[in-house]
ATP-binding cassette domain-containing protein
Amino acid sequence: MMEEKFDAALQDVGLREKKKEMITALSGGEKQKLALACILAMKPPMIILDEPTANLDPVATEAFVSLLETLKEERHLSLFIIEHDLDPWVSMTDRVLMLGRDGRIFYDGPLREGLQEHAGNLKHQGVAMPMVSELALQAGVAEPPFPLTIDELRRRNPVLEGKQRVRKDEIPLLRAENVSWKSVLKDVNVTISNGSFTAVVGPNGSGKTTLCRLLAGIISPSAGKVEHPFGKKEQFRHVGYVFQNPEHQFLTDSVWEEVSYSGANRKQVQQMLEWCGLSKHVHMHPFRLSQGQKRRLSVATMLVNDQDVLFLDEPTFGQDAASTEHLMNLIEEKHRSGTTIVMITHDMELVDTYATRAIAMKEGEVAFTGVPEELWEEDVEAFHLKRPLRAQIEEAAYVPQ
């Protein structure tokens, strides 16, 4: 009887054929589906999900949300989603509770009306607008009814401005030549140019983090070589790395000590803590911070230094709208000051807004290198990506002559 329940739950989430596989062998999206199957087996009337797609690539996110929408309709399930990012959930949301920074609910009702009513205050409260609504506001076409879908926005003929990317002479700073690492990377060749802002994108498990750790000198290749202009002893003064898991880089017993560990002076430390919203937590142990605060601290420990190269692995994970914008502004400021930025991300809106170059990984190989505009012309779904909204709207509006 129990076995039948388990099999039915696995069938519901599309994992029946992987019943005997090790959990560690599953992709990020499959692990999330497995967690959902464990809940479905108990047949609850309601499921609460806390940022369920935060670690998934765009295609896995779409598949997971679609699965939930189907289960909601077929099982008459009630879903309670805790989220920073509204975009994947717009089509299935019939009620939204908006919480402010003080922890109080400032709106309870339909999504469209809530966005319309509080448009000017949402970012301050840490609530992210759906990208369609954000672009409508930027283009001055957000009159009622507030647009929530690409079709609704496109019908208003918005004028959307893309990022003006200044092409510079590309001077190689880091280079991987015929690099392989165990079974993860296969004969990779890639160059990071001095002063560039490079986004590394691709599916979960495609080798993004391994490539960046090799380029940063944290691990050594199984074959091939990585070239950089820094001496081996000096490398870690010139190269900074923000890990995907913040706890992996904490070394001290307080927030203050963590930021000052590199030798930054008192004024620099205080300023960085204020910029990252951590000045009230200087004596707290880093492991006692919230996940979002841990992420900001991990970024702060690197931003306070003057490295030539800064690697960031999913720097905006777990951040609300205001914190994400603030964090990216700090990273952009670092880039403008001359630091070469290499950022792993699943967020194509960030790539479209900030990156000057993009590297797309697929199954341990570099499948694309170039400017983001060229990437949007590729079959991005092959890399488990979705075009940024601006590119989707331009594509939908394009009529061949």
About this structure: The CA atoms of residues 272 and 304 lie 6 Å apart. The radius of gyration is 22 Å. The chain is about 35% helix and 20% strand. The chain has a mean pLDDT of 88.
